[in-house]
Amino acid sequence: MYAVYSLKHAPGLCSALTVTTTAHAQTPDTATTAPYLLAGAPTFDLSISQFREDFNSQNPSLPLNEFRAIDSSPDKANLTRAASKINENLYASTALERGTLKIKSIQITWLPIQGPEQKAAKAKAQAYMAAVIRTLTPLMTKTQSQKKLQSLLTAGKNKRYYTETEGALRYVVADN
Questions:
Q1: Residue 130 — left, alpha, or beta (φ > 0 → left; ψ -120 to 50 → alpha)?
Q2: What's the pTM value of the predicted model, to 2 decimals?
Q3: What is the number of structural domains in the chain?
Q4: For a FRET experiment, which of 9, 85, 130, 132 has its CA 20 to 30 Å from that of 94?
Q5: What is the pLDDT of residue 52?
Q6: Which H or E run includes 130?
């Protein structure tokens, strides 16, 4: 599994937490496609509907709406992409294995805002990101997932991207 998290405090930039399955090899012809999105790459043993149901039951104060398919580019043959709007500056998106709709990648994207609501919006984005980590790592407590998220943010601060592998999870932090 992979997780991507980026957090930036400037307006117009976005932040995301993506969790995907592990695929290590990458050949030169697939350099533009993330290895975990390739045909045959592993998936979570979890459909997007199951994930959403688990997420919502574990996090009643952080509702995740139904995902809707979005038209996507060259990887249509292998993937179905879907998104769910949480609010005006917070979205969830996913890359699903075509046919089974099992999760290859799931992401929370935050579009930072300025002004008096910035602190609350950032806290909400981080709460959703920690909840995604927790939902996919059931033995992790709320406090542990928040600490993990903060650790990733600190390690990835001011870096194009930072990766960290923990068991079957791979976290990628992009601060751009």
A1: alpha
A2: 0.80
A3: 1
A4: 9
A5: 96
A6: helix 118-136
